[in-house]
Write a structure and sequence with these properties.
Strand content: 5-15%
Radius of gyration: 20 Å
Largest sheet: 5 strands, antiparallel
Shape: elongated
Number of strands: 5
CATH class of the largest domain: Alpha Beta
Structural class: alpha+beta
Number of helices: 11
Distance between the termini: 26 Å
Order of helices and strands: EEEHHEEHHHHHHHHH
Oligomer: single chain
Strand order of the largest sheet: 1-2-3-5-4
């Protein structure tokens, strides 16, 4: 399931992506991502090892910083939500003090700015969408692609909200329903489609072209409309809705391209 507020799940510090999530009325950031930035570790596993050793040392010193970190779900490389050590701004300032880095001071200033931006976004939600577009464009995506991706996120959020209302409960159920829509739309599940494109852990939607994004929106918007029209309740009935989708042109497109 794609997280709501997916456009808020990433922020950028000096070209490096840092995952975050809104929790208990505040931003919580991936500690490993931040450790990687401060230690200039490109390899994710090396950053994780550094954090493991640092957290062990902090515990031995009696610091409560590690205790104040929480395991929260953030999007991983494969696009799935996985539990990750996260810290709020207060805890991060203490972690930063424990890491010798020339980036420490600019990073503190950046953290303060990110917090202020959230206040702005609450007052004016359009700012959040604008920042999301800027991140995508910085990655090299075209204006047309970005507009479709933004619209696709909104349609996906509408679908998942509708499923929640209709008693679809678990992430596994969301994943199964998403796979059924993908099969009806492209003739393949997301996993099969990733294999078709030669992808490994990458997020499939980031590797779709404009037309594929349109087909994806069509499949998900149609599912939402069917669920509302039939007033379907529960996982089984909503799965039938996805099974009954037949946008055949999408499958033809995949076979030829």
């Amino acid at each position: 399931m794609e997280t709501n507020n997916i456009h808020n799940a990433l922020v950028v510090f000096e070209g490096k992506q840092i995952r975050r999530t809104w929790h208990n009325n505040g931003w919580w950031f991936s500690v490993v991502d931040i450790v990687g930035v401060l230690t200039e570790q490109i390899d994710f596993q090396m950053a994780r090892k550094y954090w493991n050793k640092l957290s062990q040392r902090l515990r031995e010193e009696g610091s409560e910083v590690v205790t104040n970190c929480h395991q929260l779900k953030l999007p991983a490389e494969d696009g799935k939500l996985r539990e990750t050590d996260c810290a709020n701004t207060e805890a991060l300032f203490r972690i930063i003090q424990s890491i010798p880095s020339k980036k420490a001071e600019p990073f503190k200033l950046w953290l303060a700015q990110v917090g202020y931006e959230r206040v702005q976004e609450i007052e004016n939600p359009e700012l959040a969408q604008k920042r999301m577009k800027e991140i995508y464009k910085a990655k090299g995506y075209s204006d047309d692609w970005v507009e479709k991706r933004v619209r696709g996120i909104a349609i996906r959020d509408e679908l998942t909200d509708e499923w929640k209302k209709r008693d679809v409960k678990t992430e596994k159920e969301y994943a199964i329903l998403t796979a059924e829509i993908s099969k009806a739309t492209f003739g393949m599940t997301p996993s099969e489609y990733k294999d078709f494109k030669g992808l490994n852990k990458e997020n499939l939607r980031y590797h779709m072209n404009d037309l594929e994004l349109i087909f994806t929106m069509l499949g998900e918007a149609s599912t939402t409309k069917i669920a509302k029209g039939r007033n379907t309740l529960g996982f089984i009935e909503n799965k039938k809705n996805a099974d009954n989708l037949q946008p055949k042109g999408c499958s033809i497109y995949c076979r030829h391209f």
